[in-house]
Write a structure and sequence with these properties.
Length: about 240
């Protein structure tokens, strides 16, 4: 009987440990922790469902290590949304302009131009994140890049970082996790798969290379966007 009781107790203990497994602890900062700010941002984006140093995943497999940065408010951040319009008015008047958000004059043209033209000028969305690109340098060395990730790649990475049950801090510079980004297909059939490494590793000496992505975003010139929207409507209006 004693052996049976011990085995039963051991099973209950194991179940209890599994049930009380906690998420990775947030590092302490002067402002909000990275886990607070990014979980809030991820929830908001899901509800709304949004230079040589820039890098986009190429075909095949790439390995990256996400790096956080501190914004002007003293909060630890990771992702910043980058939304732009690509405009071609002909006569070499090609422009790339930052979207004006909910009040963007160019976005307001959706029902004023043809589907073909809207397909060309509609907002192009990426998520920016500082990363160590493993073996991404000219000579195959690790290097710092600002990664531009599409929605599917970003959401997979964010889910692993902020919604997964993990023992360690995946963003730790000394005991964090690398991620493999696998891209396949072309055009509208392009697919991304993000997979965490099985072992922890050091990020390397790249903490001083990170860019404050929030401050690097230029203020949107709404008057210029309105003028550009007028030119688009004049040339392509239905």
């Amino acid at each position: 009987m004693a052996k049976t009781v011990k085995k039963t107790a051991a099973k209950k203990t194991a179940k209890k440990k599994t049930a009380t497994r906690k998420k990775a602890p947030a590092r302490k900062t002067k402002g909000k922790s990275i886990y607070d700010t990014e979980r809030e941002a991820l929830d908001q984006r899901k509800r709304s469902g949004g230079s040589s140093d820039y890098w986009k995943p190429g075909d095949g497999r790439s390995t990256i290590r996400p790096l956080t940065f501190m914004d002007d408010e003293g909060d630890e951040r990771l992702f910043v949304e980058d939304v732009r319009h690509w405009i071609d008015l002909g006569d070499d008047e090609k422009q790339v302009v930052q979207c004006g958000g909910s009040d963007c004059p160019i976005c307001a043209l959706k029902n004023e131009v043809s589907k073909e033209i809207w397909g060309e000028i509609k907002p192009d969305k990426y998520m920016l994140v500082n990363v160590v690109h493993r073996e991404g340098g000219e000579d195959g060395e690790d290097c710092h890049k600002i990664a531009k990730l599409r929605k599917t790649a970003y959401e997979q990475l964010a889910d692993y970082l902020f919604n997964s049950m993990v023992k360690q801090d995946p963003l730790s510079l000394t005991k964090g996790i690398d991620f493999k980004v696998v891209r396949s297909g072309t055009g509208f059939k392009t697919k991304y798969k993000v997979l965490p490494a099985q072992r922890t590793s050091k990020a390397g000496d790249f903490a001083d290379s990170v860019v404050d992505l929030a401050s690097s975003q230029r203020e949107t010139d709404m008057e210029a966007l309105e003028e550009l929207a007028g030119s688009i409507l004049e040339k392509f209006g239905s």
